Amino acid sequence: MDVLIREIRKSDHDMWLSMYRRLWPNYTDEALVAEMNRIFKSSKRSAYVALVGEHSAGFAEYALRDYANGCNSQPVPFLEGVWVSEEYRAQGIAKALVQYLEKKAQMAGFKEFGSDVELSNYPSQIMHERLGFEKTETVIFYRKILD
Prior knowledge:
This protein is an alpha+beta fold. It has helices spanning about 15-25, 30-40, 95-105, 120-130, and strands at about 5, 45-50, 55-65, 75-85, 115. The protein has a five-stranded mixed sheet, sandwiched between helices. It is built from four helices and five strands, in the order βααβββαβα. Helix 1 (about 15-25) packs across helix 2 (about 30-40). It is globular and about 45 Å long.
């Protein structure tokens, strides 16, 4: 299967929003579009689509973070999210997306590539390990609302 990976453009708005809805179904379209706009405006974030023919098979988001838990260098290229449509899963799409971003990071001179996964997202943990990521730490974040 031939997969083309390219940066998402503003003209891809509807396609990207459709994929966003499936990855983050608990968020409103307003919140998702706001996040998409933040990515377009940022010099440290970008998103990439995997195309199979004319069909969007998935996407991944890339960021340059000032710091990432478990990484030794700073700044750190970071996989912010990856999603593949059901019909394209287990066909190497996620691997192609991540390898594309890893190459982007290597070409920029970076030696590490970070990511994170929610504790409850076991399928994503397995995917990360299959793609060569190593678990560095487990963290639970807390917050307290101040009156």
